[in-house]
Amino acid sequence: MISDKPVIGITMGDPASIGPEIAIKALLTERIFEICNPVIIGDASVFNDIIKRLDTNAKINVIKSISDAKFIYGEPDVFDLQNVDMGQLRFGEISAMAGNASFEAVKKVIELALAGEVDATVTGPINKKSVNEAGHHFAGHTEIYAHFTNTKKYAMLLVEENMKVIHVSTHVSLRQACDLVKKERIIQVIELLHNGLIQLGETNLKIGVAGLNPHAGDSGLFGTEDDLEILPAVQEAREAGYQVEGPVPADTLFSKASTGYYGGIVAMYHDQGHIPFKLTGFKWNAQKQQMDSVKGVNITMGLPIIRTSVDHGTAFEIAGKGVASSDAMILAIESAVQLSKARLNQNA
What percent of the chain has pLDDT over 70? Predict the structure, then answer.
């Protein structure tokens, strides 16, 4: 670490997406340099193009190692992977080239974090189809991180103000998601959420656990998973000392969570957690036909390194237009800084 500020590695995401744009916009926010030393991992030619499109006086500092970074506001450091052919790149289009470039940026930032060269990692949005077309068969960022860090127990935690949601399962079919509602996994996720809340500085450690079925099964009338898997998990977690309630019907749980009643909640599957979360952080302007604000941070819990991310997609429809919001990227960087400090204090 060059100073007392953590070094944060930020991946560009898919170069055909809004990822590079929001990374540059975030690093053109002066307070980011007040709290950390940021460095972008990606292709320098992509960022030179973005800077021209944004008509800013910023200048890219191209580096080949973290030790070459200057961490100067107005001169974003870009760890150049030289893996994008600008002659072939088309904004808003799926391609193996773009998928490979985004994948290589993620792989490199993981390597840098494992080597201790960056203190935390922040990821821009990738397109899963592009990544898979490039021959990298992963369901998403979380699975890439788990693979390259050899992590078996992990979960996705979404954070936006009062809404802090962790998931029992994510990128699987709904049929598979129901089958994955198992007592052992639910207990594991409760533990990950509890630890995450502490690392984020949360004082309210009360955890609400969502039911899977309507009315949390209504005593077996609408399914048995709530009684046979979720309730025993909650009881065992409570006996272990965790402040936990459930299973709570999802239509009640999330409305209570939005008020701050729970410090965090456990969702049983991807959309159960993502839909109410995005209703909180995503603000669509119908008149302008664009997002006024896209807030929300995705944190992968259970990894040996820190990983936060924007919790939105590639937004291909507005890529290259200069109108993308960097709110979520800024929040992701701030969360990475918070987690870095918490880890440093824990290891002190």
Answer: 94
What does the H/E/C string look like for 125-140? CCCHHHHHHCCCCCCC
Q: Any idea what the Cα angle at residue 214 is, between residues 210 and 220, rounded to 5°?
A: 95
Retrieve residue 182's tokens: 């198992």
Contacts 24+ apart (CB under 8 A), 67-75: 69/2, 69/7, 69/37, 69/39, 71/2, 71/3, 71/33, 71/37, 71/38, 71/39, 72/33, 73/30, 73/33, 74/28
pTM of the model: 0.86
SS3 for 65-86, per residue? CHHHCCCECCECEEEECCCCCC
User: Are 29 and 145 found together in one domain?
Assistant: yes
Q: Are residues 203 and 318 in the same domain?
A: no
The lowest-confidence range among 59-63, 117-121, 273-277 is: 273-277
What are the pLDDT digits (tens) for 180-212?
Answer: 999 999 999 999 999 999 988 899 999 999 999
Contacts of 63 (CB under 8 A, 6+ apart): 39, 69, 77, 78, 79, 80
* pLDDT of 73 over the 70 cut: yes
The string of pLDDT tens digits covering residues 39-68 is: 999 999 999 999 999 989 899 999 999 999
Distance of alpha carbon 322 from alpha carbon 233, whole angstroms: 47
Closest CA to 297 of 333, 268, 245, 254: 333
Phi, then psi, of 159 in degrees rounded to 5? -130, 125
**DSSP tag of 294:** E
- The range of the structural domain enclosing residue 23 comes to 7-151+311-347
Please report, for residues 66, 102, 106, 138, 154, the alpha-carbon distance to residue 116 in angstroms, rounded to integers and kept in the order given.
11, 21, 15, 25, 21
Q: Domain of 66: which CATH number?
A: 3.40.718.10
